[in-house]
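Page header: ASSEMBLY MODEL / two components / 457 residues total.
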Amino acid sequence: MRNLSQTERAIMTALNAHITRNEEVSLTELAEECHVAKSTVVKAIKRLGFKGYREFTYNYRISRDIQRGTLLPLKVIDGDDAEVMERLVDTLDWCAGKKSIVFCDGKLWAPLLADYVSRKLALFDIFAPASYDYAMVTESRMACGAAFFFFHHLHSGEEAVSSGIGEGMVETVRAHGFRTVVFADGDETNVSSYADVLVRIADDAGADLDLFATKVIMVFERALAGLSRYRAEGRGAS
Amino acid sequence: MKALDEAILQAVRAAAGEHRRATVSEVAQQTGAARSTIHRAARKLGYKSWLDFTSSVVRSLEDLDGQDAVTTTVAAMAEALYRYRNLPILIEAVGDAEICAMFLVHRLAERGFTTLPYSEGVLALGGGVEGAGLLLAINESGMSLLPTCLTAASQGFEVVSITASHDTPVSKVSSMNVVIKNNKSTIAAYEPNYFAAGTLAFLAHVLRRISVEESLGRG
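Prediction written out in full:
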């Protein structure tokens, strides 16, 4: 609110709080709450180009949402974003008609992300159940697709969390013919040599704000959009 | 305010809604007003120039939807959760947002909250009295969880929600509604949908807020 005065800013902040709580607030109530005259509130609203209080609150209520730019992280991937996305999209396309696996062994994030990724891939006709079963790798009768892993090393002294029955599984899965896709933050030198597609998730700006899953989903959603374009343009294997 | 001035304002606001400044030429074309009239309309509102006017409207509207809105909304959600710290907090989500429900159940339980995934059986824990507990419904469309919200409300649970629009049945029955932008598309022409990502980020901010408040002995 760089261009609003301090009073105008206080008025807008108070109004925002009421609207968040789904509360109706009258012009009189808002003016009293902000210790200003009603005319001051009206003046502030008119400076934003609205005719009056009612029109402003109506428009603000229906249009207000949390913008991506202020909530979602700006930096999501470390390294060459375009190259990583291209390899990821190519791998998703390559999975068509094959069996893929989303490894879900681990603590909080791995099973949650595995469910998300598996469900979304199914929408794109990609068979990729969330699983931690070794037999899924060794006894497959279908052609091998991709294996997805999530390695998240938490900040703030929390214990490191990995997925996929330990990082050694990446090597095993690859040896059985799967393409390996690894989403990882932190130093993943152990798995990077076995990852066909390594998505290095950028470190969070603040150690107390864990946005690993947010970033993985952002990357994955972009990859799905890329896959959709691939198919629409008749490119790729499927 | 004259009808022509109003039309000019509408055009400026419409452009600002698209996160851009309206040009004098386009407003002149849209309203039929002379360029001098358009400049005068800006000065009537107390702005130095057309640039000053249109920039202010764009920035102000963007900022209202921006960081301050996040901060206020995060605080409101943290406060709602904290109010029910010692009572059942039920969390339900559908579709992409399912990931958010289990995440929040775990993370709040780690902080000593009584959080559970929603089920009708669990509603009975509240005893059916007013203020029995809290239901957080995360529903992109704001439609499919309406029966859940109504059932919970009938059992005395306060309902708060996260949806992709303020104008949905679920948001209407909620005492508090947070709107996270989504992007609906078909599989054939898919566009990234960041509703789940945005909700997770929002909840991460809420959890941080709760931690900070607790560390300061407030809450």
